[in-house]
Every structure is written in C-alpha cells, then in structure tokens.
Amino acid sequence: MSAGRLLSVLLLLQSRGRMSARAIAEELGVSVRTAYRDVERLQGAGVPVCAEPGRGGGYRLLDGYRTRLTGMTEGEARALLFAGLPDAAADLGLAAEVSAARLKLLAALPAGAREEAARTATVFHVDAPGWYREPEQTPYLPLFVDATLTQRVVEARYRRWRAPQEVSRRLRPYGLVLKSGVWYVVAATESTTATATATATATATATATAATYRVAQVLDATLSDERFDRPGDFELGAYWASYLADFRARRYTGTATIRLSPQGRRRLPDNVAPEVVRAVDATATAVGGDGWVEAVVPTESTTHACGELLRLGADVEVVAPAGLRRAMADTVGALARAYGVTGRA
C-alpha cells in the first residue's frame, strides 16, 4: 500500500470537494476497488471522510477539515518546472511527481484561488512537438536527467551524421534542452572540459567546449560513479542562444535568386524555413505585371535547396545560380520521364 497514494486521495478530496470512487480511481490510475480500499484506510486513520450515497453522491471531507501535509518532496519540487508540459514530464520520468505536486499546490490554495486555478487549467494546453512528426523515442533521457542533477559522467555510444557515424563519448552533462519536441543534452567530453581559472576566460571556454547531442541519437548509455564539476559561470540559456545563432550562420552557405508567383509567395511559409521567408519579404521586387516577384534567398546546399523549392511546384523558378537551376530542371525532367511525359503537350 502506497502512503503517497493515500495522501493523493486526501489531497484530491481537499482540492476538489466531493468525488466518486470511480473519479478517484481514474485520477490516480488504479481500480475502483483499490479506490474504495484507500478511502477506507483514510477513514481508519482518523481522517473524516464522509460517504454520500445516491446519484451525485460520493466521498468528501467533513466541512472545515484541511490537512497541512502538503510539503513537497525533492522530486515534486523539481517537477514543478514541467507542470504545464505533461509530455515533457513523462519523457523525464516525472509524470507522477508532477501530478502529486499539482495536487499539493491546489490543496494549499484557498477555495476561490483553487477554483480559478482549476478553471484556468481547463482552457490551456501545451503540445510541444511540431506537426508531421512522430515523437522521438528517448529511452536514455531519465539517465541524463540523473547525470545532470548529480554531476556524474556518462559513457555513451552516439550516432552522428558524419563519418564515422557511431562514436563513443565520455560526456559531462551540463543541461537538457527541449526544442520543438526534440530533447538535446548539452555536455562536454572529458578531453575538452573547461580548465580556465579567470572568470571571463572560464565563461568563454565553457561555452566553446560544450557540445550539443540529440538524445534520440544515443544508442547506449551508462551512468558512471565518476563526478565532475559543472562550470560555475556556464549558463544553459546563454549557451543555447549562442548555439542557435552559430547554427543559423553555419546552415546557410550560399544564396539563390528565385521568382515566385503570388500563389507561391502565399505558400512559402508552409514550405520553407522562416529565414527564407524573411529574405523574400526583404528583397522581393516585382517582375512583369502578373504579380510575380524576384528575390534573393539563403541556401544550405544545392541538394537541400532543390528539394525545398520543388515543394512549390510551378509557382517558383530558379534564376541563379546555374547549378541549382540545372538541378531543378534535371529533377523535373526525371519526374516527367517517370510519368511517361517526353515533351510538352
């Protein structure tokens, strides 16, 4: 029998008033029979739980009774950060702690504030992952949570994009980041841990030596007993902002001149990166009198730009560079041959 579950039943009744055994069972993920037994144990422990029979009845606490057993455990306090992100909490293995912490918070509020909090919770929902993508499997995420909080080294086998694809790393996790439903761990390897002593130098070195790893790409991980010291002036938010700025700078290596129809320009935000949309808005000039515009946009590579622009079909034309224009023509030609089209109708 879980004492924590008994406390959860007590806090549910305190924060919500009258509840049926079925409602308690559904809230706590147990059977109705277990909910009945839990209520009986509360009554046996001297908690004044009243049973009201009939339609609309249920269990409630005697008027005026309130428990002060709302002290939070370390895990529940940690989980408060994710109270509005249930999926993220589940990924981190904190779903139960978030539920318990939320109950304790509600139970500690006066009746009016508790009702307002409950009402607010019914009109907001956070869904972090992006569209058209299944949630990633991150079996080692709880391990990295533990490693980050206890400052312990992780022995990991990681799959990256460049050769060799599988590498082994001794990681010193500094923090975790959830970006558009994807989890990343920011960590330093043993060979590149910051060693500078001056404050300003330590900050720069810590930022330079940390690296970003996609948790879903971790093939295997083991938590070691070896401890490490997280750089005192390493700031996760500042690191991530710097990482994103660097990523954007490295991402685009060239430019292309394109022409867009009015329909193509309307479809642009749904098919290309925001940076490309902003570039079109900043550089678009009219060509002809039919609404087409010409603009200069950033590109990652010929292959990537070709695939991205082809989503717009006949609503886009590449003017330059010649290599990208040729790649577009070759792809369209291959499609035409695949569909048995050898010339214009």
Which characteristics define this entry?
about 350 residues; alpha+beta; five-stranded antiparallel sheet; four-stranded antiparallel sheet; 14 helices; about 45% helix; about 20% strand
Describe the structure.
Residues 191-208 have low confidence and may be disordered. A five-stranded antiparallel β-sheet has the order 6-5-4-3-7. Helix 1 packs across helix 3, helix 1 (3-16) crosses helix 6 and helix 2 (21-28) packs across helix 3 (32-44). It has 14 helices and eleven strands. The radius of gyration is 28 Å and the shape is elongated. With 345 residues, it is α+β, with helices and mostly antiparallel strands. The relative contact order is 0.07.
Largest sheet composition = 5 strands, antiparallel
What is the 3D form? elongated
Strand content: 15-25%
Spatial strand sequence of the major β-sheet: 6-5-4-3-7
Radius of gyration: 28 Å
- The number of distinct helices, counting runs of at least 4 residues, comes to 14
Distance between the termini: 77 Å
Q: For this entry, what is the oligomeric state of its chains?
A: single chain
The amount of helix comes to 40-55%
Overall structural class, as computed from helix and strand content, comes to alpha+beta
